[in-house]
């Protein structure tokens, strides 16, 4: 009798463990190549009030210096100043523009980091101002928040061109055992409206087809408790 009871208890424990394991799995319905999902990774695009550093260099340092903000503190013609690395930082205004040395006002909202660098380089070349210019652009203040049932809730800085919801959860130390992987909310402000999406991280179909699989700056990821 006791032997049978012990076997039943052991079997129940194994089944519960398997069930918990399945609940802890991400995209659990995607096994090998049996299920395929087409996922387009969307790059971060600049928005009004974002900050970005832009540096121009060439074989002639004196010439390229004309297109870089001076290394001074304080605001310069609507641009922000200098970052901790001494690079010039621009704040995109509400119209999506920045004031760039010599070139003047440039509309940069909607551009990716790479397309911004290429745009500035092309404008310099088209204006016959700098033919061999090398332009680099970096995000400065971009970030998103991960809250709720994660091990390290808080704000995450965005330094890459694409960050997924799985990346964000990983950076926050993963979801706790009390967190519900089937109900992860993403709050996003878009076109003046606040939108809320719910994603099931255990389902590849829900995860990879979600419009918030690739996150944007200022998104809020909230992991609900079970």
What key attributes describe this structure?
single chain, alpha+beta, three-stranded antiparallel β-sheet, disordered N terminus, 26% strand, 226 residues, elongated, 5 helices
Largest sheet, in brief, is:
5 strands, mixed
> Which percent range describes the beta-strand content?
25-35%
Count of strand segments: 10
What Rg is obtained from the alpha carbons, in whole angstroms?
Answer: 24 Å
Q: Given the C-alpha coordinates, what overall shape results?
A: elongated
Protein described:
- With 226 residues, the protein is an alpha+beta fold.
- The chain is built from 5 helices and 10 strands, in the order αβαβββαβββαββαβ.
- The chain has helices spanning 2-24, 61-64, 113-126, 165-171, 204-208, and strands at residues 51-57, 89-91, 97-100, 104-107, 134-139, 143-148, 154-157, 179-190, 193-199, 220-225.
- The chain has a 5-stranded mixed sheet, with helices on one face. It has a 3-stranded antiparallel sheet with strand order 2-1-5, with helices on one face.
- A hairpin with a 2-residue loop joins strand 8 and strand 9.
- It is elongated.
């Amino acid at each position: 009798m006791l032997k049978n009871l012990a076997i039943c208890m052991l079997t129940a424990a194994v089944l519960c463990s398997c069930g918990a394991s399945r609940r802890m799995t991400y995209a659990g319905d995607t096994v090998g190549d049996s299920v395929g999902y087409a996922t387009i990774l969307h790059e971060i695009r600049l928005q009004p009030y974002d900050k970005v550093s832009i540096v121009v260099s060439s074989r002639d340092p004196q010439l390229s210096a004309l297109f870089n903000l001076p290394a001074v503190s304080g605001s310069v013609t609507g641009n922000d100043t200098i970052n901790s690395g001494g690079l010039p930082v621009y704040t995109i205004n509400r119209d999506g523009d920045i004031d760039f040395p010599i070139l003047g006002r440039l509309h940069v909202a909607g551009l990716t980091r790479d397309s911004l660098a290429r745009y500035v380089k092309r404008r310099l070349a088209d204006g016959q101002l700098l033919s061999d210019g090398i332009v680099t652009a970096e995000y400065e203040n971009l970030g998103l928040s991960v809250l709720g049932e994660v091990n390290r809730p808080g704000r995450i800085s965005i330094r890459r061109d694409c960050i997924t919801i799985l990346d964000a959860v990983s950076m926050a130390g993963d979801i706790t055992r009390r967190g519900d992987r089937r109900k992860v909310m993403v709050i996003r402000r878009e076109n003046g409206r606040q939108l809320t999406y719910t994603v099931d991280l255990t389902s590849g179909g829900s995860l990879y087809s979600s419009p918030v699989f690739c996150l944007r700056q200022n998104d809020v990821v909230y992991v609900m408790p079970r």
